[in-house]
Write a structure and sequence with these properties.
The chain has 251 residues and is α+β, with helices and mostly antiparallel strands. It has helices at 55-74, 115-127, 147-155, 222-250; strands spanning 6-9, 12-15, 25-26, 33-38, 44-48, 81-82, 95-99, 102-108, 131-137, 160-164, 168-176, 182-188, 194-198, 203-205, 208-210, 214-218.
């Protein structure tokens, strides 16, 4: 388990000297919950809350174990492992391995993070030549996306990656039918559909500029979904017009 020298609180770095007893923080390396305590020699330090004491960690652990098993089954030569320490950036990603020989990291995003913090972590991985996919446990995703979910949706070019206990890796795409009405469509993802690319550069989401970083994502699959809905709407409209015309002739 990593021993961080600082913690995160609402997207801000908190030094050990500034941390308060009883306050919950998040680990900058593994995202798990941190608190502070005095050691045997009276020195204050951050420590991780044991997994079985927080429901949040159970959700995170369940998603990590499920995704790791799924990756080992679908990419058996990927050398997948959990929480391997990357010394250069002092980080311990949830899952790391290789797809088609290229290094890939999967991070399970359960606790809300600011776009700035997501930005910072993704950029660190990218600078090492690592492709990153942030994944949200499906049971945590609501129909009204949170700010960080919108950020990830933009980062992955219209895809929000979800982990489903029943279906495995999925993506969600949300778009506005009108200015106020949002629709969400989903798709189960196979390894073959993932492709390597860079995120869009100089694109802002809620005031945060997305860096051009190495990512894996899925091609714009929702376009066909939208076309289907569009065609179905006009088929129904045509049927309705025929019925109205037929009734008017009879009357």
């Amino acid at each position: 388990m990593c021993r961080p020298t600082y913690a995160m609180l609402k997207g801000k770095e908190i030094a050990l000297s500034e941390a308060l007893l009883g306050q919950s923080y998040s680990c900058p390396n593994c995202q798990k919950e941190l608190k502070i305590r005095n050691g045997k020699q009276g020195k204050k330090h951050f420590y991780h809350i044991p997994i079985d004491k927080t429901n949040e960690s159970k959700i995170h652990l369940s998603a990590k174990e499920g995704l790791l098993f799924w990756l080992k089954e679908n990419v058996p030569n990927g050398n997948w492992g959990a929480e391997r320490y990357i010394k250069k950036i002092k980080a311990r990603p949830d899952i790391s391995g290789r797809i088609k020989g290229k290094p890939v990291i999967f991070e399970i995003q359960h606790s809300p993070l600011t776009a700035n913090e997501l930005n910072r972590r993704t950029l660190k991985y990218s600078e090492l030549g690592i492709y990153t996919i942030w994944v949200i446990p499906e049971e945590e995703f609501k129909r009204n996306p949170k700010a960080y979910e919108k950020y990830l949706h933009a980062l992955y070019k219209g895809n929000l990656f979800l982990w489903s206990k029943e279906e495995g890796l999925k993506v969600a795409h949300f778009f506005y039918k009108t200015k106020t009405k949002r629709d969400i469509v989903y798709k189960k993802v196979s390894i073959e559909e993932l492709y390597f690319t860079n995120s869009s550069s100089n694109f802002k989401v809620r005031g945060v500029t997305l860096p051009e970083v190495k990512i894996m994502t899925v091609y714009k699959w929702w376009i066909n979904k939208q076309k289907e809905e569009f065609n179905n709407f006009y088929v129904l409209l045509l049927i309705l017009l025929i019925v109205i015309l037929f009734v008017s002739i009879i009357v």
